[in-house]
């Protein structure tokens, strides 16, 4: 933020209007903070997981971290391409994240799997809203970026939830 509560933009020949670029930079900044948070939630789980299937979930959490780091980079690069200044520090992420804080006392693999599923679901909901907001603002490229991220989040959620979605005796899916 800068003058008159408006986002300060670097000069750019990007064809979007300054108003649209400013709005998208603000939107992208919230999601940059959230993607950094999600990335390190995955690392928190990776570093601290214990229990059955340790090596499989340990590796899964590291893969999810790498995937979300990719989202961080995509979001930051789009934000700066629009003339914004990416705020990508841990402190900025902490101040701007849209996600519920990750508990620091989880140990068991099932607890981490379920809590990360909650976080990926929460992030996915925010990303879906960002797709709509980007489209309504007239920025199809940012909407496409959020759509791409949303697809990846959905797939990750599937990988996480598959660990605890087991059919019961009647054939119904239970948690």
UniProtKB/TrEMBL annotation:
This is DNA starvation/stationary phase protection protein Dps. It comes from Antarcticirhabdus aurantiaca. The lineage of its organism: Bacteria, Pseudomonadati, Pseudomonadota, Alphaproteobacteria, Hyphomicrobiales. The gene is dps.
């Amino acid at each position: 933020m800068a003058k008159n509560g408006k986002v300060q933009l670097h000069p750019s020949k990007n064809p979007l209007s300054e108003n649209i670029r400013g709005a998208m930079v603000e939107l992208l900044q919230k999601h940059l903070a959230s993607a950094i948070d999600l990335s390190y939630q995955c690392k928190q789980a990776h570093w601290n997981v214990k229990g059955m299937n340790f090596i499989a979930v340990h590796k899964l959490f590291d893969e999810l971290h790498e995937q979300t780091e990719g989202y961080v980079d995509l979001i930051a690069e789009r934000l700066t391409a629009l003339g914004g200044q990416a705020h990508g520090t841990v402190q900025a992420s902490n101040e701007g994240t849209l996600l519920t804080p990750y508990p620091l006392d989880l140990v068991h693999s099932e607890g981490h799997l379920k809590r990360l599923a909650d976080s990926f679901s929460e992030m996915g909901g925010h990303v879906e809203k960002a797709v709509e907001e980007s489209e309504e603002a007239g920025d199809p490229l940012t909407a496409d970026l959020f759509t791409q991220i949303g697809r990846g989040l959905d797939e990750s959620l599937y990988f996480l939830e598959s660990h605890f979605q087991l059919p019961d005796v009647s054939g119904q899916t239970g948690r």
